[in-house]
Write a structure and sequence with these properties.
This protein is α+β, with helices and mostly antiparallel strands. The protein has one domain: YjbQ-like (Jelly Rolls), CATH 2.60.120. The chain contains 2 helices and 7 strands; from the N terminus they run ββααβββββ. The chain has a 3-stranded antiparallel sheet with strand order 3-1-7, with no helix packed on it. It is flat and about 50 Å long.
């Protein structure tokens, strides 16, 4: 297994179909549920990225993917996506092999 994890509180990782219409739908869905530019309580701390924290909770911050003979076991249309919701800081993704 491989753990893929976004190492920042305003970024996410998910698995889905790499199809442009679906990607736009996902972006619109998270924006509808956690719109930018609202007056979030988090903004009272001097930050302005309350929506990015909530979007990360919706998408999730990590996935675990099975591996067989050194290859990711993804479905025929599946891809791993990194979702960036707040580009203000440097970010990283970590990959951890489990069970090798």
């Amino acid at each position: 297994m491989i753990l893929v994890s976004a190492m920042h509180i305003t970024a996410g990782i998910y698995v889905n179909d790499w199809e442009s219409g679906l990607i736009k739908d996902i972006d619109a869905w998270v924006e509808e549920l956690a719109p930018a530019n609202l007056d979030y309580h988090h903004h009272q701390t001097g930050e302005d990225n309350g929506d990015a924290h909530l979007k990360r909770m919706l998408i999730g911050h990590q996935v675990v993917i099975p591996v067989t003979e050194g290859k990711l076991d993804l479905g025929p249309w599946e891809q791993i996506f990194y979702a960036e919701f707040d580009g203000q800081r440097k970010k990283r993704v970590i990959l951890k092999a489990i069970g090798f």
